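User: Some background: our group keeps a shared notebook of sequences we're curious about, and every so often someone picks one and asks for a predicted structure to add to the entry. Today it's my turn. The entry only has the sequence so far, pasted here. Could you supply the structure so I can complete it?
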Amino acid sequence: DSGQKYALVLGNEVKGVQQEALDLCHHCVEIPQYGTKHSLNVSVASGILVWSFFEQLRKYQ
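Assistant: Of course. Here's the predicted structure to add to the notebook entry:
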C-alpha cells in the first residue's frame, strides 16, 4: 500500500543487522548471489532493494 510507511534496514557484509533490529522487522530479504562474490556493497544492495520495492508498489497499485 503506497499510503503506508516503510523502512528498509540495511546491514553491512561483516556485521549485518543486530538481532534486536531484526526482531522488529516484518520481513527479511537476502539478495541471492552466484559466482565468486560473497557479498554486495551496501550501496549496491540498497539500490537493488529500493528499485525492487518501488516496482512492487507500482505493480500493486
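Suggested note for the entry: The radius of gyration is 13 Å. The CA atoms of residues 22 and 30 lie 13 Å apart.
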